[in-house]
Amino acid sequence: MTDAQSHIVIIGAGNIGRAVEKVLSAKGVTVSFWDADASKHPSIRPLAETIPSASFVFLCVPSQAVRGALSSVVPFLRPETIVVSLSKGIEQESGKFMDEVLTDELKSIPYVLLFGPMLAGELSGGLFGAAVAASASVTARDAVVELWSGSALSVEVSDDVRGVALSGVLKNIYAVGLGMLTYLQSGHNTKGWYVSRAVAELALLISSLGGKGATAYGVSGLADLVATGFSEDSRNVQAGADLARDRICRAESEGCVSIVPLMRRLGSESVKYPLLTLLASVITDGNDPKIAFERYFHAHS
Catalytic site residues? Predict the structure, then answer.
């Protein structure tokens, strides 16, 4: 299928949805939008008009809105349409990761997780981005790679769907910690050491929850953590600064939203992950991050 023959529908007209539109439209791909808030984009059309002809459906909504969005989309999907999720997170009520939510709702319809350093502002500005297309379907992930070929987004493939799904959750949580350290003026040496510890812990978590630990060191893990955690525009970084300043998470941060269901899912196993436990103590219990980090650094240096 050529770009001119492709038609994608983007669910969610926020910053990342608009960035996807800008990059793919420049390649000649036909793009339609749908959003629960019709005021977000001038060309929003009913799902019944757009989904049946879609080659790809891109999910660009907050993680807590994914299941609801899919329930509206699925009745109009063709079996060959590929669903691509840029939504990263864990459901509050069920504690399910994105791969589990997508499997619940889509059944046999192929889906791809497209995760990595894809900051919306940079993509919209024509700057380089990178992502991994993770799917159990070789055909689906190869189609996503082809869709982005020749653009500023470099896409590689993976069959570790669970590992990539977990990376998307965990990098947001650990990025909140980088926001705290930035506000505390901890310095680049400290933040570099923190990243090494965070990624090592990320690898252990992925392995224990059914993924491949090596995925933590790739595009959806380390690369995305660095891009998110060192971006001034990151909501997770802003949330970390808020928490360090006055113990309140004001930003709409996937990291803050995800920590409670993740810790609940881990249960007593959470004690094996001291950095994650530290972040939970600040985000959910209101502990002083300066004191918490000092204790952590002394205990692990």
Answer: 171
